[in-house]
Amino acid sequence: MPVRIIEKYDRQFEYAGILMNTFIVYQFLQLWFFPQLNQAEKIYSMSSLMAFEFVLVHSGVFMALMPKKWSLIVFVPFYGLFAYAFNKSMPNNVILITYMFVILNRMRFAFFNVDKKLKDRTILFSIIALIAYFVLLFIVAFSSKILPPFGLTNEFLNTSGYNELKNSSGGSGGLFLDAPQTGLLMGVLYYSVLTIIEAKLISYKK
């Protein structure tokens, strides 16, 4: 039965989530500290991902709290349209791919009737993630002027073609794209918090 499969492999899903978040943190750090000239598209996409996370973190709460029929019929397609629209301005499909992985892993309990403890854990995770996102967003925004660019110097952004890509994709694009180190720092902090949360939730399981 699907429910038994979901519950049986729950720990494996959690470990997969931790590994994925850890890898994403590494990606953000690499792009911030040691970017390569051929990584302009990746820097742009990863910085944009943190703006799109605003949509993902809300969808996580709604899908965790609402009945599964609402999640399947309303919320998954609704937020999927956001992902598609956001993805249209990207040079690759990072946003759509991320959305699909989030649906498969982070929100899997929205699709089946599972044990109440597992459901409650998902709701708790989603709410903490939402709070963490907004707290970190304010911290990063207010400290943006003092953040060191490290590898993302003006010379690098021009030479790599990042600024040209940003301008051709619709202008300024907001704080995360105008100063990509802010988006990358947000990614480092946010996904590190998610990793810690998931590790803590696993440690409290039987």
Textual characterization of the structure:
The protein has 206 residues and is mostly helical. 76% of the residues lie in helices and 0% in strands. It is built from 10 helices and no strands. It has helices at 2-8, 10-33, 40-65, 68-88, 94-104, 116-142, 154-159, 162-168, 175-178, 180-203. Helix 3 packs across helix 10 (180-203), helix 4 packs antiparallel against helix 5 (94-104) and helix 6 (116-142) runs antiparallel to helix 10. The longest helix is centred in the middle third of the chain and has 27 residues, at 116-142. It is globular and about 55 Å long. The two termini are 22 Å apart. The mean pLDDT is 84.
Set out the fold topology:
Elements lengths: L1 H7 L1 H24 L6 H26 L2 H21 L5 H11 L11 H27 L11 H6 L2 H7 L6 H4 L1 H24 L3
In short:
The chain is mostly helical and 206 residues long. The protein contains ten helices and no strands. Helix 3 (40-65) runs parallel beside helix 5 (94-104), helix 3 (40-65) crosses helix 10 and helix 4 runs antiparallel to helix 5 (94-104).
SSE string, helices as H and strands as E: HHHHHHHHHH
CA radius of gyration is 18 Å
Q: Characterize the main sheet.
A: none
Strand content: under 5%
Question: Which class do the helix and strand fractions yield?
Answer: mainly alpha
Spatial separation of the terminal alpha carbons = 22 Å
